[in-house]
């Protein structure tokens, strides 16, 4: 895209899956994100950006399958959060990320497969944690403290 038509700020809707396994543990992924030469390690839930016109639940299922190879059933919304970050693609461009979190359950195997990630995110680790374990790690554990509010709303 020519530099003169790149917006200096934009909004990006996203969806995140708070996936409960049969033991009621939640999947948390660890990812290395590099923005303009600066690396950051983040703990996150699987999910990502929606494509234009894509339904929330369809986008969530697609993103989870792409990132970790799991098939899910979406139960219900557990929270929203937002934050502003620097674009990983264009220096000087800010992105306002608006996320919707959903409680989900596995629809099949719990075998994680991170080898088919078309966005090539550097997701290199995952953990299945209890609600209490996530909440005890405090507000700095996730990229946004409102993610912890969503965790507190999960229902076994």
Question: Could you say which structural class the secondary elements and strand pairing correspond to?
Answer: alpha+beta
How much of the sequence lies in strands comes to 35-45%
Rg, nearest Å: 15 Å
CATH fold-level assignment: Nucleoside Triphosphate Pyrophosphohydrolase
Top keywords for this entry?
3-stranded antiparallel beta sheet; single chain; 156 residues; Nucleoside Triphosphate Pyrophosphohydrolase; 4-stranded mixed beta sheet; alpha+beta
Outline:
With 156 residues, the protein is α+β, with helices and mostly antiparallel strands. 17% of the residues lie in helices and 44% in strands.
What does this structure look like?
It is a single chain. With 156 residues, the protein is an alpha+beta fold. The protein has a single domain (3-152), classed as Nucleoside Triphosphate Pyrophosphohydrolase. Helices cover 17% and strands 44% of the residues. The strands form two sheets. It has a four-stranded mixed beta sheet with strand order 4-1-6-5, with helices on both faces. Strands 3-2-7 form a three-stranded antiparallel beta sheet. The termini are far apart.
Write the topology of this structure.
Blueprint: E1 9-20, E2 26-35, E3 38-44, E4 47-49, H1 56-68, E5 72-86, E6 94-106, E7 122-129, H2 131-136, H3 146-152
Parallel strand pairs: 1-6
Antiparallel strand pairs: 1-4, 2-3, 2-7, 5-6
